[in-house]
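User: tokens in, sequence out, please.
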């Protein structure tokens, strides 16, 4: 049976009103790397290799975001400010990512527990989270703010704020400390 996960609060500060829509990107002939600036000449997003990534037209993003190459960002995905998405990351529909988030290479999120089904539950990543290299996070899970997921982890449960979790399945290890 589909699990019920608690609903998460996610904080976008000011960004939701000001998010940019990726359909603007598709209107542009993309140089390498692509840097989109807003009217105040502030960097909105930098895409390292746009023709080697899939980015859905309705993707919404804040300021100062970076997307490396060979990234898949599906429809109905929203990210905040200062989000770094490294190479080979997979982000399916309904994923929500807050501000100041680092997503290391080969990270994957899921959204469908028994595919193909109609019941999709996205992953939610709150502010100031680091997701380590190759970690996989099951749909419906929330990673609380300031937490760190160690590389190679399989995250099957919601992670509270300010904690380090790793392993398969990922478990609480110790309170988070910043690098
Ligand atoms: C989870 C993490 C933050 C822990 O860092 P830390 O607090 O400095 O912890 P340590 O490296 O001292 O490791 C503590 C213990 O946990 C183990 N450990 C650390 N990370 C682990 C992981 N991802 N999976 C399993 N065990 C892990 C270590 O082997 C060590 O075990 P020991 O006590 O038996 O020797 C770090 O290991 C990590 O995974 N960072 C993400 C790196 C990354 O993906 N960078 C992306 C850029 S390419």
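Assistant: Sequence out:
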């Amino acid at each position: 049976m589909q699990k019920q996960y608690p609903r998460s609060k996610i904080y976008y500060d000011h960004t939701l009103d000001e998010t940019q829509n990726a359909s603007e990107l598709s209107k542009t002939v993309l140089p390498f790397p692509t840097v989109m600036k807003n009217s105040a000449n502030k960097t909105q997003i930098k895409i390292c290799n746009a023709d080697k990534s899939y980015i859905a037209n309705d993707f919404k993003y804040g300021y100062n975001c970076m997307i490396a190459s060979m990234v898949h960002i599906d429809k109905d995905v929203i990210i905040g400010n200062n989000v770094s998405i490294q190479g080979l990351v997979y982000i399916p529909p309904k994923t929500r990512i807050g501000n100041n988030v680092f997503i290391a290479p080969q990270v994957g999120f899921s959204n469908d527990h028994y595919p193909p089904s109609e019941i999709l539950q996205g992953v939610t990543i709150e502010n100031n989270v680091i997701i380590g290299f190759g970690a996989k996070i099951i749909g419906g899970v929330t990673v609380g703010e300031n937490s760190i997921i160690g590389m190679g982890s399989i995250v099957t449960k919601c992670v509270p704020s300010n904690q380090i979790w790793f392993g398969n399945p990922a478990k609480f290890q110790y309170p988070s400390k910043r690098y």
